[in-house]
Amino acid sequence: MLSRTLITAAAHTSTLHIQLSTSIISLTSPFTRGSLRTLQNAIIAHATTSKTPVTSGEVNAAVLVPLCNVDGVPGVLLELRGGKLRSHAGEVSFPGGRVDPADASFLAAALRETQEEVGLDHRQIDILGQFGPPERSLMGLRVWPYVGFVYPRGSHHTDTGSLDDPLPSISLSSLTISQAEVATVFHLPLSAFTSPARIRPDMFRAANPYWAIDVSDLVEGFEGVNDPSGHSEVSDGKAGRLEVWGLTGWYMSLLMRILKVYT
Asked: What pLDDT, on the 0 to 100 scale, is given for residue 119?
């Protein structure tokens, strides 16, 4: 890890900094029980300052930020939404969706949607907590984000062994993708969130700065094609790039703040 890296994005009168030297976990070494415990404690501390009441009559959705190791590399599992969906087609997103009346909780909705979309059983997921505040999507839904760590199918969560032992990696080929909802899934390494070649400053809801992340090279078969207005036909990334942006990008930037990668 670099001893000190500082990148500043100027956005109106606000700034957003990347400070590798202050990250509370490694962005390159595999997730361990110790690093997950550190992250969970940080999420709990953050939650005490960002509680949001549930508003009666509001339509809610819930998403899972699925952290995982892939080939020993820590990162997050993301989806490219299917092109035939009525909303958010062709966008990068987390697994999740609208909360149904039958769901026992917002978390239950996020886990149900995750299983439906990418085939992850709830027993594979170690929930670390909920962060926020939950924001409204452009469709008017209040979106509640949860963080979890994904274990391979058949792997057992255990409290034995060293806190520094690497946790097992998942195989993307083992996932069962809903062809109706998801075009593909990919693994975004945590190190990408500090790569000058990938990040660009953006504004969330025209008010708050965050980093959008270029993932064009991580999605197999992606070819950016621009329409005459300069917008990509696959996503709203700049110059035909596929990006983690909008609400997904905002939540990832917020999680990086909790990790003290962004300040």
From this structure: 97
